[in-house]
């Protein structure tokens, strides 16, 4: 067992554990914390896959900003205190189909003969290559993404904002 | 070669009339009436012209033949596109004339309509345009287009201007009847729609042009599979048992002129469709399935007549008699011989005029009396002699009395049926006897006998009703006494239908 | 690498202009107080119209941006399509927004921005671009559906739409990753090239990817069983947004599906054809049958639009040059009709505050024009002649049958017949049932009247003179199968 | 006037009908002169044609079959040609004479009788139409025109029976007459079509020729003949279709005279006469006619005995006579039938017109309320007596010769002869009864008796003319009479259908039957004039029998029950089935099924977002698994 | 860093992502709190990202499209969370709950 393998299995175990925590935890806040674990573990996976940039982004944006947002939301909606209300009635069916789906995917991905698998040489992608690709070839998605963020921003403001009472009268 | 613009005009005039009415303010009711009657008269004139300008023993099967490219060279359809191909054979000419007559009479009768008469006439003219379109179209697409167009306005015409019937144990609201009529007819057209697709795909010519498709010899099994689609799809509109129940309910609920047009003309679209799409397109399928159709037709005749006998409502009786009479048409078509089919087409014409007259008369009575219960009347002849005379003529024509159109038609049908299925022919004649029973029962009960004081206020036919009825009667008698103009045109075309011996 | 790429930003001019328009609207909303309530929709509509005119400059030109997206006739078709739709929706929103909603600036800005997403869904020739455009459209719609933020139904619709949308886009992404994994690329052309050869090595992964992509896009277009958000979101959303959902959102999904499946998945047609056919069949049947049970006009139209999706999916199942141009034709006719219907419904709602079907009682007496137009639209939706629906359905079904899917056509025709029933129920309320309160005429704003007339004429135009539109649709789809 | 111009005959009254219908209200005297003028012209033309025919007969001798003339009416090229045409032969000439003469008499009579009727013009219009149709019927050279006219006379009969349309009974009687005869017509029409199918023609001569040549299969021919006879039975009121004729007396009395005595009802006899060769080709054909005729004769005589309505008695006597004609046809003596038909027309019309005169004068028609009218109405009384005695078969009156001719023809068939003889005294008895009760004895209702008076000349002139004919018409059976009158071939030859010296006179039969007639008359005189208590005694003794006769063998009740209970029940059952099974279950059921499917399906929309997500996942999983399975 | 291709097969990464994905699906289906559902969706998105990056690394490293894709996924995910939270907050304010089972006024 190489170091990489060890790291991978540890990270993978963490990720799965975090994922389990997210879907099974009895308290919402715990779930959020488990999510952080999982997200950081995934960042580890990215490093293993030679994508340090992604790992960075993952930790900064996801594990940092997004989870904090989620925690805020949890606090604002104050629903973390009812453990029995956490899981819906359809969990047996859900478990079955999720297991079926997972099984099907695992069976598929492990039995498929992926093109380029054999000569797969993982090379580190230099930041500047990534950057220039992002701003040249992928400029359009990038710009659209900016619009997406803008829309999310505007939308969040519009929806979340409490209106002044005098506007009600109109 | 006559100009196809005549046919185009029969479609375009009502359409433009409908559009023109849109721009008339609805408060000018009298102007709308006058305009509509004028349009009805114009259509009558056009159809008369087309009928008499139709030349006998021409080489061309279709006259007034004309094409307008509608969509050309589109990928789906290849370079043929879709053509508005108009033309009539003798059958079409007779049906065109029928439509013209009934439309004219219908617009006259409709002059009584006062409630939102603008909307009414717009819808009526759409309906009429559709009917003319079906009879004149020689293109599958447009055939179906107009076919649906003719059904479309029915819902509103019945549901808005119609009337509900309440019986002791059940009721038939106009909404129900309108919905049933529309749904059953459109449902049946689904079968036609599928059949058209199948024919188009199977022919593989990328065209909907009927004369072109007539040249195609379809595989026998294909014909056997597809023909029932057309037979049932069109048959339902012709009142085919057991899908006939839309007809009595719908006709009863409809306003007078709509009943006239619907029973008088629209039901013929179904029979016409069986000829145009079924027999002409798929002769072998027709031959295979006709025994079924003739049995169903016989059931129609007897079942309709017997049901009519049990009716306590004037209009229901007439409605069921339509079912019965359309059974003769189906029987005639199913004989697959020239005499029978000729008789069927004659019956289409005859029944159209006759039933229109009946509905016009029932409507006239209902408008005044607000009831249609047979038992409520008696001795009407004293107050309404012309009404009784007109109604009696329609009744006698419908029981197949010589001298009226019904006899000529039914006689031909019987001859045809006896050639192929004598036993069914005998049953058909029995049906005519049953018709006599219910018609005469109705007349004895409602028209004659002591007068009922309740109806002292009844007036005889108004001038428009009189005029409309007179036009219809003229044709009933003309065809009954001198059928040659009709038969010559019809027989000429019937003999050209493949498989007709 | 970069030197070979065509990075001609001018291709994106219309979308830049749209973004600018959105910014302008926001700015107007912010700074010019007088404008706020009344003029924004007209600014939006005028701007959209202007950009629409501008985009006509790319007719019959063919160019691509770094292989990510093409500006060709297909794109131009949808540019015009979406901008016109957005303009109409902006106009019909005017009074509704003024009466019932807050923050009009953002409303119209989002409307304009969503158009960009829709256009790029149609234009993209690459999965990432397609995905992100889809998200742009979705995000705008999430917000717009929840826009009546003090209304419980709007909140609920928005929540369901949002959560399920996120869920569906996760599934879609997973599917895309499978496609990417098996083909090594996200570009449609490369994917097609990769699948052109032997795919047996990764057949299952490919299938999985296809199913998941179909699920994700099926969500977008509301295909059964991924449709369940539709009725709730339709009912919850503010009325103009319901109209917009039924038009742009759906059509954009199909624009994407069509380009994707014809561009990338054509070589593995046999793998997905039956899936789409099955989805189409289920969608038609469920949508139309459940619609029979509805009491709310929005919900009714939601189910009816599900039914319509079934018809459209048939075109994808029987994918060919003929079906795709028929699909474009049908979608155009459908959207014009639907907008006509919604214009009337919105106007009626503005006047009476009713959106139950029974609330349409006496419409014929009180607003005859709207009643007639709505009736025409409903007849058109059910596929009656003279109206757009008849011809477009005929062509669509015809094309599908011609590809050998007669059984699917049979279901479609039967279901189309079933649909007539519930449309007639509405028409019955409009024309037959007597009004409950008052018979006096209601004042319909001139703008709405004009719009109604224009759209109704459009409905008739497509139904009676479909030739031009058919030519355009054919031009637009020609290159898909070049 | 040529024989081939005979097609003009029906057109004249037809034209009168059209003119009266369209212009009636605006014509002076409502156009009655037009109708009478038309029929008078027709009568003259008939005489001219008869003269032409006798000339031809004399010229060609026995093989002369008559003259025909036809025109095409409708053609399906190569498949069907329908021609309308006329054919004149001896039978036709007899019928034409009878029809035109009686019609003329009746129309003249009606000028007086119908005066003041509210639908006077319409009455004349329909009478004209009837005459036109009847002429067409007898002239028809083919079954098509025959059927055409056959139905039209039926309609005219219907219209005229229902002339007093404010009476419920008249309306019902008209309906009954039409429907009953129509049932027979179904048979006729089927028979015509069957024969056409077998021979390809409607022409009567050609059909007979083809049948004689063996072109028609045995079964088809048998069926055709039986069905044809059904038509004849309906029209000629033979048992069991006879029920309509007594009820038809609801119509104006002149109508009864013309239609229900002299002309229309003999159409059946005429038809069978024309097609007798067909019957003779079928095993049992003549026997069928004979049996029906005998049965009808006997039953009607018994019923005539107990009727109290003067017109009904005469009506039953008509049925009686019609039965007798069929008897003659059944034993293959069409000539005898024709002679009877010829004479019967006069005396039966006379009886009805006489009865009409009584009714006109007293406004009563029940014999139990009449009586002693001979003093008030001597002309009517005498003429009526002549008619009644002729009907009874008293020697030298017309009826005597005709009846004896038939009885002679029956000699070979003992049983039939016996039965026929048995009805002779019965007939005489009820004729005596009606005569006595009406004109003799004491008036039972003095009030109406007071007002009774002889009618206008329009009424009594026809009576007298007919009475004269009734006395002398029988003599035409003798060739010498014809020659005396200037018909070279002799009227007898015409009456005997072109067969010279066909008259058979048998003294034994004549004396025997005359004795029976006298016995019957005596019995009648005894019972109703001499010992008026006798009927009551008989009645009490034979109550069940009387009840059976008076209730017309309960046939009306049986028919009524059959219609009300059976036919209408079936109709209601079918209507119920149509509404509940076909419509509500079948058609609506389809709709409900769809709706119910929608109802079931809508519950997938639970409103709960996790369920929605579950649905999506299930969709994905299911599709994936199916796809994998398919891929293997 | 060492190339890991020889050390860890691609399938292991894919299996990890599959597990995360199905966990996410399970979470979406069973969690009743809207925020937790959102978290589960994040798991699914991460699973997709892992796939993308793994494929990019193994299959076509020179194009690294998958990595670009992952960047965008993260971006979108963040925006999505922001927007979703606004909607959830709005519904919480109006209805007093963030429990999706209780938000079921719209149905049938």
Task: Tell me what the structure shows.
The complex is a heteropentamer of chains A (170), B (501), C (482), D (632) and E (108). In chain B, β3 and β4 (171-172) form a beta hairpin. Chain B has helices at residues 5-22, 29-53, 90-110, 117-136, 140-151, 154-161, 174-203, 210-215, 220-237, 246-253, 256-279, 283-310, 314-335, 338-369, 380-383, 385-398, 405-420, 422-447, 463-481, 484-494, and strands at 63-71, 82-88, 165-166, 171-172. Chain B contains 20 helices and 4 strands. Chain B has 501 residues and is mostly helical. In chain B, α3 (90-110) packs antiparallel against α4 (117-136). Chain C is mainly α and 482 residues long. A two-stranded antiparallel sheet of chain C has the order 1-2. The model of chain C has no long low-confidence stretch (mean pLDDT 90). Helices cover 74% and strands 3% of the residues of chain D. Chain D is built from 27 helices and 2 strands. In chain D, strands 1-2 form a two-stranded antiparallel ribbon. In chain D, β1 and β2 form a beta hairpin. The radius of gyration of chain D is 31 Å and the shape is globular. In chain E, α1 packs antiparallel against α2 (34-58) and α2 (34-58) runs antiparallel to α3. Chain E has helices at residues 10-30, 34-58, 65-95. The longest helix of chain E has 31 residues, at 65-95. The radius of gyration of chain E is 18 Å and the shape is elongated. Chains A and E meet through α1, α2, α3, α4 and α5 of A and α1, α2 and α3 of E.
Oligomer, anyone?
A: heteropentamer
- Helix percentage range of chain E: over 70%
The succession of helices and strands of chain E, N to C, reads HHH
What count of domains describes the coordinates of chain E? Answer: 1
Cross-sheet strand order for the largest sheet of chain C: 1-2
First-to-last CA distance of chain E:
56 Å
How would you classify the helix and strand content of chain E by structural class? mainly alpha
In the CATH scheme, what's the topology name of chain E?
A: Helix Hairpins
Total E-strand runs of chain E: 0
Radius of gyration of chain E, whole Å = 18 Å
The poorly predicted ranges of chain E are: none
Radius of gyration of chain C: 21 Å
- Please give the alpha-carbon distance between the first and last residues of chain C: 27 Å
Tally of extended strands of chain C?
A: 2
CATH architectural group of chain E: Orthogonal Bundle
Biggest chain-to-chain interface with counts: A-E, 87 and 77 residues
Looking at the structure, what is the overall shape of chain E? Answer: elongated
The CATH class assignment of chain E is Mainly Alpha
The dominant shape of chain C is: globular
- Strand % of chain C is under 5%
């Amino acid at each position: 067992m190489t170091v990489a393998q060890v790291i991978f299995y540890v990270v993978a175990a963490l990720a799965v554990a975090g994922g389990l925590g997210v879907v099974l935890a009895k308290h919402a806040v715990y779930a959020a914390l488990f999510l952080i674990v999982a997200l950081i573990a995934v960042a580890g996976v990215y490093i293993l896959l030679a994508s340090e940039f992604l790992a960075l982004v993952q930790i900064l944006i996801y594990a940092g900003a997004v989870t904090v947002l989620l925690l805020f939301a949890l606090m604002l909606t104050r629903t973390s205190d009812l453990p029995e209300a956490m899981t819906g009635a359809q969990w047996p069916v859900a478990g079955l189909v999720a297991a079926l789906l997972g099984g099907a995917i695992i069976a598929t991905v492990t039995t498929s003969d992926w093109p380029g698998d054999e000569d797969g040489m993982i090379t580190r992608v230099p930041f500047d290559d990534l950057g220039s690709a992002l701003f040249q070839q992928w400029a359009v998605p990038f710009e659209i993404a900016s619009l997406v963020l803008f829309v999310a921003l505007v939308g969040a403001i519009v929806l979340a904002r409490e209106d002044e009472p005098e506007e009600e009268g109109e | 070669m006559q100009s196809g613009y005549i046919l185009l005009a029969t479609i375009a005039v009502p359409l433009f009339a409908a559009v023109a009415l849109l721009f008339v303010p609805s408060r000018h009711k009298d102007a709308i009436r006058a305009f509509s009657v004028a349009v009805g008269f114009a259509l009558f004139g056009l159809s008369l012209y087309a009928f008499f300008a139709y030349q006998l023993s021409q080489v061309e099967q279709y006259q007034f033949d004309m094409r307008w490219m509608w969509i050309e060279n589109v990928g789906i359809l290849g370079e043929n596109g879709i053509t508005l191909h108009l033309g009539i054979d003798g059958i079409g000419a007779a049906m065109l004339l029928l439509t013209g007559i009934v439309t004219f009479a219908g617009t006259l009768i409709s002059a009584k309509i006062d409630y939102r008469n603008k909307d009414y006439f717009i819808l009526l003219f759409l309906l009429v345009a559709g009917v003319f379109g079906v009879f004149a179209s020689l293109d599958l697409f447009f055939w179906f287009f107009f076919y649906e167009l003719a059904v479309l306005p029915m819902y509103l015409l019945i549901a808005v201007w119609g009337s509900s019937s309440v019986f002791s144990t059940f009721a038939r609201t106009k909404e129900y009847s309108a919905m049933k009529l529309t749904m059953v007819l459109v449902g049946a057209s689904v079968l036609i729609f599928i059949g058209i697709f199948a024919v188009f795909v199977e022919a593989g010519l990328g065209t909907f042009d009927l004369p072109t498709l007539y040249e195609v010899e379809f595989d026998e099994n294909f014909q056997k599979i597809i023909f029932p689609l057309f037979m049932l799809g069109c048959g339902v509109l012709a009142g085919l048992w057991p899908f006939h129940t839309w007809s009595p309910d719908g006709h009863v609920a409809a306003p007078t002129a709509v009943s006239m047009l619907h029973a008088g003309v629209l039901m013929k679209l179904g029979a016409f469709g069986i000829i145009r799409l079924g027999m002409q397109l798929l002769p072998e399928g027709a031959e295979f399935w006709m025994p079924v159709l003739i049995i169903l037709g016989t059931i129609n005749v007897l079942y309709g007549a017997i049901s009519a006998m049990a009716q306590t409502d004037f209009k229901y009786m007439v409605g069921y008699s339509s079912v019965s009479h359309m059974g003769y048409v189906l029987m005639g078509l199913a004989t697959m011989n020239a005499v029978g089919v000729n008789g069927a087409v004659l019956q289409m014409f005859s029944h159209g005029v006759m039933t229109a007259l009946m509905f016009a008369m029932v409507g006239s009575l209902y408008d005044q009396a607000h009831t249609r219960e047979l038992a409520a009347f008696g001795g009407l002849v004293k107050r309404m002699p012309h009404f009784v005379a007109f109604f009696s003529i329609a009744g006698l024509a419908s029981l197949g009395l010589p001298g009226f159109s019904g006899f000529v038609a039914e006689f031909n049908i019987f001859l045809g049926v006896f050639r192929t299925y004598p036993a069914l022919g005998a049953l058909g004649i029995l049906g005519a006897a049953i018709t006599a029973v219910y018609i005469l029962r109705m007349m004895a009960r409602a028209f004659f006998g002591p007068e009922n004081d309740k109806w002292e206020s009844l007036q005889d036919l108004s001038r428009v009703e009189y005029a409309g009825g007179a036009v219809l009667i003229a044709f009933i008698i003309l065809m009954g006494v001198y059928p040659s103009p009709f038969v010559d045109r019809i027989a000429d075309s019937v003999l050209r239908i493949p498989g007709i011996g | 690498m970069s030197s070979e790429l065509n990075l001609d930003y001018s291709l994106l001019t219309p979308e830049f202009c749209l973004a600018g328009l959105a910014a302008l609207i926001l700015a107007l909303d912010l700074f010019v107080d007088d404008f706020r309530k009344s003029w924004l929709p007209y600014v939006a509509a005028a701007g959209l119209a202007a950009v629409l005119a501008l985009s006509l400059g790319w007719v019959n030109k063919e160019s691509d941006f770094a292989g990510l997206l093409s500006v060709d006739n297909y794109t131009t078709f949808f540019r015009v399509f979406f901008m016109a739709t957005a303009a109409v929706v902006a106009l019909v929103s005017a009074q509704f927004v003024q009466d019932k909603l807050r923050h009009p600036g953002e409303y119209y800005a989002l409307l304009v921005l969503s158009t960009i997403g829709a256009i790029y869904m149609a234009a993209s020739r690459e999965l990432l671009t397609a995905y992100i455009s889809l998200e742009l459209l979705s995000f705008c719609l999430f917000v717009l559906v929840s826009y009546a933020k003090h209304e419980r139904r709007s909140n609920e619709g928005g929540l369901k739409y949002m959560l399920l949308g996120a869920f569906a886009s996760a599934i879609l992404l997973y599917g895309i990753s499978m496609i990417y994994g098996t083909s090594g690329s996200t570009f449609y052309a490369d994917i097609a090239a990769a699948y052109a050869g032997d795919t047996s090595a990764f057949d299952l992964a490919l299938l999985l990817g296809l199913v998941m992509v179909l699920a994700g896009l099926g969500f977008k277009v509301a295909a059964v069983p991924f449709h369940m958000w539709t009725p709730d979101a339709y009912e919850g959303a503010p009325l103009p947004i319901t109209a917009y959902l039924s038009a742009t959102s759906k059509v954009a999904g199909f624009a994407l599906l069509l380009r994707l499946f014809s561009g990338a998945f054509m070589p593995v047609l046999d793998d997905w054809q039956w899936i789409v056919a099955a989805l189409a069949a289920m969608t038609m049947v469920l949508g139309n049958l459940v619609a029979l049970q509805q009491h709310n006009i929005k919900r009714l139209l939601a189910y009816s639009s599900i039914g319509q999706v079934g018809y459209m999916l048939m075109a994808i199942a029987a994918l060919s040059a003929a079906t795709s141009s028929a699909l474009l034709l049908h979608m155009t006719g459908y959207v014009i009709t639907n907008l006509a219907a919604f214009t009337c419904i919105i106007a009626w709602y503005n006047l009476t505050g009713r959106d139950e079907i029974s609330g349409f009682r006496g419409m014929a007496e009180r607003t005859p024009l709207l009643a007639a137009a709505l009736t025409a639209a409903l007849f058109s939706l059910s596929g009656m002649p003279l109206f757009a629906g008849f011809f477009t359905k005929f062509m669509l079904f015809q094309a599908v049958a011609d590809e050998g899917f007669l059984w699917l056509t049979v279901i479609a025709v039967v279901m189309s017949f079933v649909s007539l029933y519930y449309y007639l129920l509405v028409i019955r309320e409009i024309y037959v049932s007597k009004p409950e309160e008052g018979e006096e005429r209601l004042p319909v704003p001139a703008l709405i009247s004009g719009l109604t007339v224009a759209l109704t004429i459009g409905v008739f135009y497509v139904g009676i003179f479909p030739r031009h539109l058919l030519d355009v649709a054919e031009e637009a789809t020609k290159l898909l199968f070049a | 006037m040529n024989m081939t111009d005979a097609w003009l005959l029906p057109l004249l009254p037809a034209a009168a009908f059209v003119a009266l219908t369209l212009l009636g209200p605006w014509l002076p005297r409502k156009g009655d002169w037009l109708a009478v003028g038309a029929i008078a012209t027709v009568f003259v033309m008939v005489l001219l044609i008869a003269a032409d025919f006798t000339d031809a007969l004399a010229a060609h001798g026995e093989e002369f079959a008559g003259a025909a003339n036809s025109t095409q009416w409708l053609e399906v090229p190569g498949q069907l040609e329908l021609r309308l045409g006329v054919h004149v032969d001896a039978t036709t000439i007899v019928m034409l004479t009878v029809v035109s003469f009686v019609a003329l008499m009746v129309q003249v009579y009606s000028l007086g009788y119908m005066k003041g009727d509210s639908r006077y013009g319409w009455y004349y219009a329909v009478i004209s139409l009837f005459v036109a149709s009847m002429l067409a019927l007898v002239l028809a050279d083919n079954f098509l025109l025959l059927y055409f006219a056959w139905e039209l006379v039926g309609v005219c009969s219907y219209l005229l029976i229902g002339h007093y349309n404010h009476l419920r009974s008249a309306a019902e009687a008209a309906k009954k007459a039409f429907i009953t005869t129509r049932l027979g017509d179904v048979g006729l029409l089927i028979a015509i079509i069957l024969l056409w199918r077998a021979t390809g023609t409607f022409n009567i001569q050609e059909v007979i020729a083809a049948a004689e040549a063996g072109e028609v299969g045995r079964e088809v021919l048998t069926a055709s003949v039986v069905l044809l006879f059904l038509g004849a039975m309906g029209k000629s009121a033979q048992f069991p279709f006879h029920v309509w004729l007594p009820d038809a007396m609801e119509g104006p009395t002149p109508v009864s005279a013309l239609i229900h005595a002299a002309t229309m009802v003999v159409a059946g006899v005429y038809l069978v006469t024309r097609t007798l060769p067909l019957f003779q080709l079928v095993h049992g054909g003549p026997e069928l006619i004979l049996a029906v005729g005998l049965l009808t004769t006997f039953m009607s005589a018994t019923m005539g005995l107990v009727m109290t309505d003067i017109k009904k008695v005469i009506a039953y006597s008509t049925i009686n006579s019609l039965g007798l004609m069929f008897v003659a046809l059944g034993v293959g003596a069409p000539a005898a039938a024709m002679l009877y038909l010829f004479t019967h027309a006069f005396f039966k019309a006379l009886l009805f017109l006489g009865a009409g005169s009584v009714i006109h004068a007293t406004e009563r028609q029940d014999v139990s309320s009449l009586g002693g009218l001979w003093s008030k109405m001597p002309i009517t009384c005498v003429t009526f007596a002549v008619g009644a005695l002729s009907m009874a078969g008293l020697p030298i009156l017309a009826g005597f010769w005709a009846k004896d001719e038939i009885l002679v023809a029956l000699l070979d068939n003992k049983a039939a002869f016996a039965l026929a003889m048995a009805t002779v005294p019965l007939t005489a008895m009820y004729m005596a009864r009606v005569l006595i009760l009406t004109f003799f004895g004491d008036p039972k209702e003095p009030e109406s008796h007071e007002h009774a008076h002889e009618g206008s000349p329009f009424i009594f002139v026809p009576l007298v003319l007919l009475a004269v004919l009734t006395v002398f018409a029988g003599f035409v059976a003798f060739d010498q009479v014809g020659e005396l009158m200037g018909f070279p071939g002799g009227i007898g030859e015409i009456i005997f259908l072109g067969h010279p010296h066909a008259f058979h006179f048998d003294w034994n039969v004549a004396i025997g039957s005359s004795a029976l007639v006298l016995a019957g008359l005596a019995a009648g005189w005894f019972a109703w004039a001499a010992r008026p208590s006798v009927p009551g005694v008989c009645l009490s003794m034979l109550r069940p029998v009387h009840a059976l006769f008076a209730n017309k063998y309960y046939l009306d009740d049986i028919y009524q029950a059959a219609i009300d209970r059976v036919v209408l029940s079936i109709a209601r059952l079918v209507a119920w089935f149509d509404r509940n099974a076909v419509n509500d279950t079948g058609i609506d059921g389809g709709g409900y099924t769809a709706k119910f499917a929608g109802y079931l399906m809508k519950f997938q929309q639970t409103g709960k977002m996790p369920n929605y997500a579950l649905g999506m996942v299930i969709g994905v999983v299911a599709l994936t698994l199916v796809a994998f399975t398919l891929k293997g | 860093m060492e190339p890991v291709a020889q050390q860890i097969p691609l399938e292991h990464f894919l299996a990890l992502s599959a597990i995360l994905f199905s966990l996410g699906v399970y979470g979406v289906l069973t969690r009743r709190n809207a925020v937790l559902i959102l978290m589960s969706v994040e798991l699914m998105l991460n699973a997709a990202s892992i796939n993308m990056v793994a494929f990019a690394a193994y299959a076509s490293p020179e194009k690294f499209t998958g990595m670009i894709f992952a960047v965008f996924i993260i971006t979108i995910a963040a925006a999505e969370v922001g927007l979703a939270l606004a909607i959830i907050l709005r519904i919480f304010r109006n209805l007093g709950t963030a429990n999706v089972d209780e938000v079921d006024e719209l149905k049938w």
